[in-house]
Amino acid sequence: xxxxxxxxxxxxxxxxxxxxxxRTDLKDVNIxxxxxxxxxxxxxxxxxxxYMTGLKEEDTKQAVExxxxxxxxxxxxxxxxxxxxxxxxxxxxYDETAMRALRIETLLREVMPPKPPDDEExxxxxxxxxxxxx
Length: 134
Fold this sequence. Notes:
This protein has helices at 5-25, 57-69, 71-81, 97-111, 120-124; strands at 35-41, 47-53, 89-94. By secondary structure, it is α+β, with helices and mostly antiparallel strands. The chain has a single domain (5-99), classed as GMP Synthetase, Chain A, domain 3 (2-Layer Sandwich). A hairpin with a 5-residue loop joins strand 1 and strand 2. Helix 1 packs across helix 3 (71-81). The chain starts with a helix and ends in a 10-residue tail after the last helix. The relative contact order is 0.14.
């Protein structure tokens, strides 16, 4: 979705309102330790993609499935909290960004050689300054 200043601002407002809805209004859905990482809004403000992340991948994916199941109810509760002409359709998705970053870091650690330890004497002097002479 194209990102503009307006859609970013509306996305932040929807994210904050959804957090309130999930925290207080929606009691029958267990989202565990999942949280909303980002909300992307379409330029016409009719659709919103809600990205969820969490500590445990399987628990977060299960929470996303439960939220997809009750998306209509969540949209209704969201409409009471935000003041837009049209409450956007919600599309809940699992955010894989954190898992991908962790996998890339792991691969880099396996491939890259370990750094050699720095000498303590070099660390005590500021870089670029000559050693003091006596």
